[in-house]
Each structure stands twice: as structure tokens, then as C-alpha cells.
UniProtKB/TrEMBL annotation:
Protein name in UniProt: Acetyl-CoA carboxylase carboxyltransferase component
Statement: the UniProt record of this protein carries the keyword ATP-binding: no
Transmembrane spans: none
Residue span(s) of domain CoA carboxyltransferase N-terminal: 20-271
PANTHER family: ACETYL, PROPIONYL, PYRUVATE, AND GLUTACONYL CARBOXYLASE-RELATED, METHYLCROTONOYL-COA CARBOXYLASE
Entry keyword set: Transferase
Keyword NAD: no
Source organism: Nonomuraea endophytica
Length: 529
């Protein structure tokens, strides 16, 4: 049992809590932009047509009072496109079955797909495939955003490829079509296993009447060309004809129910609440990420019963490793304690990861790292080869990985602690997090040293005033590009979350992961460092 040493009445704790609450207020404001869709004008117009909004459709589709884990809600943040990327994605429970759900937001440019829509949709289909989750598409889209076609046409074909891969893997794909599904968007229902279309609302065609007129000279109307009733009676594309949106959602629920889907992974034991309240997670991470904090305080507030069996506690103390359960699922945890990873920590991590693979235990990485240690002593001591061992173990570990970035995530430490490039099943970020190749001041300083050395080699004077301006500009740029909203906007995580929700989010992810069977184990023994 972890005994907390957190002083929740102390000035330091209260200062950190205030800073985190300010960040969460900013996060709420950004999430509100995604929920607002295309804005009041287009939302009102959509409703006046008697149509449900994207999140309203999801709410009626999933089981009453069940959670919906929304993914990548800040996609496209900081770009020329609206926050949310005109699509809602996430994991919800339909008739007791966890499913990946995507819903076009037709209030944003008619639901047209822009480059960030593509990235977000592909991430959703990847989650469905890796975790063996049925995939439900709520479709109402005008196809590609034509001004950005050069960025989405060629890679956009992967959306249809992934639908066929899901079907080939025995994972059902279901399309509920509420409105237009035109051009390339027509292949979403075309390549789905089950298709439901709403009468007099759904329109599915490769080319609408104007394009057909231009291409062939043929005169046609929406209904005869691609209406729901035509597809149900004549083309056979629609498997079910719904009388309205509510009926389509009812049919969608019945389809999932008829799948008789069952999970193939581990069955959880009875969970126990942590001994310490989640509310206290708000005051753990310092505003200045150079100040270390004890990750055991986080672990104590997210794992069952605050029980943690620490592995190698006296060796490599900058990395905390050990075993716990979370919502009844066994997990192995790797958490940075003092930021820097030394050779001992790297070797400890390597052994622990292999032990987790041997026992088929999923791994949770709690990131707060400035990277691997540098300097002559550490280079001579083999930090590169030891760091490479850890990265090798992370890369080839076959159990599911989950990652939460709590604080810093700099340099190759991001890789060793299973950053996005290492394909964790899910990766979430706290509002306190920052991630980059190195800290802003360090990066600017390196550029300054290189510039100074270059000038000296050429026998030229070094402009100190220009150097100061360059450093300030670079620091500001790297600081802005290190922040969680910026990184989440580029889908380098699956969402920025309130620290208090960490246990719930991880529990939902562990449950989803266990829809799939355990992956095959590795075929070699554990290497002791």
C-alpha cells in the first residue's frame, strides 16, 4: 500500500492546484469550440431541418447512462480548420458492446473531410482494428474539402482500405447514413458490412446531378440517382431503410445486438477504489517542470486500493517500476521520478518490460522525462547502448501499452517511455505536459553555441544582440510547439484529459483493449541487466 506524503494543505500544493485549474479552464474553452461545431448559424439551420447533431446521434446510439470516451477532440487546433476537424470519434457501449464510433459533423462545411478529418478518422479505424472493436460510422458528409484535395485525395484512400481490413479481420463495420454521402464518401457505406439509410434524407452517389450532367449529359434528380429508397429497392446498397434518424439509430443498435459479440481478452477482478481522492491529482505536478515530483503520489490515486508492488525500488531510483491493478485489470507501471534516465534506469526498464511480456501484463507509462543523461562520464558508461536496450524492449514488447504524459516528455526519453512513435494502444496528456526534442532554453542555447563556433571558425565577430533576439524567438517558438493543445491538435495524443479523470479513462481503455485476445508472446527469455 502506498502511503501518501502529499501535504494537501501546504502552499506548494495549493499553488500547483491553482495553476492546474487555470489550465483546465483553458481546456474547457477549447473543448467548447469543438462542441459548437460550425457555429450557431449552421447548428440552427441543421436543427430546423429536423436533424440531430453529431453528438446527439451518438448519445441516442449508445446505452443509456453509459460513458463515451471521446478521442482527439482538439484535432486541427491551431490550424486553419475548426477545432475538432468536423468529425466526432470515440469509444461507446452499444447493447453492451464496446464499439468505435465516428460521426460526421455536418454543421462544419457540410461534414466535408479536411486533412485533419482524415488523420482523426484513420486513428479511429486503427483503434478499432488493434483492439478488435466493431466500427460504427454515422455518416453525413459532402466528401472531400476540395480546396485541400491535394493533401487528402491520395492518402484518403486509406479510409476505404481500413474498412475492408476491419471486415477481413472479422470486425464488423456498420454505416448509418443520415444525409449526403457523396463522391469518395459514398465508399464508406459501399465498403461497410451493414448499411442503414434514412428515407428521403440519405443521398449516396459518386457524382451528384450537376456532375452527372457535366460528365454524361444525363438529367437526373437526387432521389433516382442516389436516394435511400432507390438503394434499398434497386441498387441493393442499403440493407435497411429507416423512416427517420431515430429509427436508423434503433436499427443500428439492433445490428450490434445481433452480432453476439464477445470479448476475447482478460476478465477483470473486482476493482477497489484508491485510498486517496482523485481530486488531489490537481496539486501534484509543479508549474516548473524542472522541479521533480514523486509519481507514486499519482499511482496511489489511480490504481486499485492504492496497492503497488514496486520492482527494484533501490536500483535506478529515477524510474519507478512495479505491479498493480486498475479497475480489476493487472498492469505494470513505469513512471519517471526525477526526469533523467540513466544507464541503471534503462536496464531496469528493459528487464521489467520483458517480465511484463512474460506474464502477459499490459504496461502503463507515466511520462515525466527530460531524456537520457548526457556527458562524458555517461557516454563512457554506455548510456547510448543502455538507452537503446530500453527502446528496443519498448519497440518489441507485444503486450498492450498505455501512455499518460503528465509533465515533461523531451528527447529520446519520449521514445523510451513509449511516445506516439512507439504505437501505444492509447496515449493521453495532462494539461501540464510539454513535449519537444529538448527544452526551449536548451535548444536555443545549442543553436547559439553552434552559431558562435561557426563565426569564430570564419574569423568573424559574433553579433550578441542578434544572438539574444534569435534565442528569444526560438524559445518562444519551441515553448508554443511543446504545449499540449498544439500537440493534441496534430493527433500526437488521443486527447488532453483532466488529471482527475485518469483512472476512469485508463479503465475504459483497458476494457476496450481486452475485446481482443492476448497477443502472441515473445520467443526468448528475460535478459537480466
Amino acid at each position: 500500500m502506498i502511503t501518501s506524503r502529499l501535504d494537501t494543505g501546504g502552499a506548494e500544493y495549493l499553488e500547483r492546484r491553482v495553476a492546474m485549474l487555470a489550465k483546465l479552464a483553458d481546456l474547457d474553452a477549447e473543448h467548447a469550440k469543438a462542441v459548437a461545431g460550425g457555429g450557431e448559424k449552421y447548428v440552427d439551420r441543421h436543427r430546423k431541418r429536423g436533424k440531430l447533431l453529431a453528438r446527439g446521434r451518438i448519445e441516442l446510439l449508445i446505452d443509456p447512462d453509459s460513458p463515451f470516451l471521446e478521442l482527439s477532440p482538439l484535432a486541427a487546433w491551431g490550424s486553419d480548420f475548426p477545432v475538432g476537424a468536423s468529425v466526432v470519434t470515440g469509444i461507446g457501449v452499444i447493447e453492451g458492446v464496446e464499439c468505435v464510433i465516428t460521426a460526421s459533423d455536418p454543421t462544419v462545411r457540410g461534414g466535408a473531410s479536411n486533412p485533419w478529418t482524415l488523420k482523426k478518422t484513420l486513428r479511429a479505424s486503427e483503434i478499432a482494428l488493434r483492439n478488435r472493436l466493431p466500427y460504427v460510422n454515422l455518416v453525413e458528409s459532402g466528401g472531400a474539402d476540395l480546396p485541400t484535395q491535394k493533401e487528402i485525395f491520395i492518402p484518403g484512400g486509406r479510409i476505404f482500405r481500413e474498412l475492408t481490413r476491419l471486415s477481413a479481420a472479422g470486425i464488423p463495420t456498420i454505416a448509418l447514413v443520415f444525409g449526403n454521402s457523396t463522391a469518395g464518401g459514398a465508399y464508406v457505406p459501399g465498403m461497410s458490412d451493414y448499411v442503414v439509410m434514412v428515407k428521403e434524407r440519405a443521398k449516396v452517389f459518386l457524382g451528384g446531378p450537376p456532375l452527372v450532367k457535366m460528365a454524361t449529359g444525363e438529367e437526373s434528380d437526387d432521389e433516382s440517382l442516389g436516394g435511400a429508397e432507390m438503394h434499398a429497392r434497386t441498387s441493393g446498397l442499403a440493407d435497411y431503410l429507416a423512416v427517420d434518424e431515430h429509427d436508423a439509430l434503433r436499427i443500428g443498435r439492433n445490428i450490434v445486438k445481433s452480432l453476439r459479440w464477445r470479448k476475447l481478452g482478460a476478465t477483470p477482478t473486482t476493482p477497489h477504489d484508491p485510498k486517496y481522492p482523485a481530486e488531489e491529482l490537481l496539486g501534484i505536478v509543479p508549474e516548473d517542470l524542472k522541479i521533480p515530483f514523486d509519481p507514486r503520489e499519482v499511482i496511489a490515486r489511480i490504481v486499485d486500493g492504492s496497492a503497488f508492488e514496486e520492482f527494484k525500488p533501490l536500483y535506478g531510483p529515477s524510474l519507478v517500476t512495479g505491479w498493480a491493478t486498475l479497475h480489476g485489470y493487472p498492469i505494470g507501471i513505469l513512471a519517471n521520478a526525477r526526469g533523467v534516465l540513466f544507464s541503471e534506469e534503462s536496464q531496469k526498464a528493459t528487464q521489467f518490460i520483458q517480465l511484463a511480456d512474460q506474464s502477459r501484463t499490459p504496461l502503463l507509462f507515466l511520462q515525466n522525462t527530460t531524456g537520457y543523461m548526457v556527458g562524458k562520464e555517461y557516454e563512457q558508461g554506455g548510456i547510448i547502448k543502455h538507452g537503446a536496450m530500453m527502446i528496443n524492449a519498448v519497440s518489441n514488447s507485444s503486450v498492450p501499452h498505455l501512455t499518460v504524459t503528465m509533465g515533461a516528455s523531451y528527447g529520446a526519453g519520449n521514445y523510451g517511455m513509449c511516445g506516439r512513435a512507439y504505437d501505444p494502444r492509447f496515449l493521453f496528456t495532462w494539461p501540464s505536459a510539454k513535449s519537444a526534442v529538448m527544452g526551449p532554453a536548451q535548444l536555443a542555447g545549442v543553436l547559439s553555441i553552434v552559431g558562435r563556433a561557426s563565426a569564430q571558425a570564419r574569423g568573424l565577430p559574433y553579433d550578441e544582440e542578434q544572438d539574444a533576439a534569435m534565442r528569444a524567438m526560438v524559445e518562444a517558438q519551441i515553448e508554443a510547439e511543446s504545449l499540449p493543445f498544439f500537440l493534441s491538435g496534430r493527433l500526437y495524443d488521443d486527447g488532453v484529459i483532466d488529471p482527475r479523470d485518469t483512472r476512469t479513462v485508463l479503465g475504459l481503455c483497458l476494457s476496450a483493449i481486452n475485446s481482443a485476445p492476448e497477443p502472441e508472446p515473445q520467443r526468448y527469455g528475460v535478459f537480466r541487466p
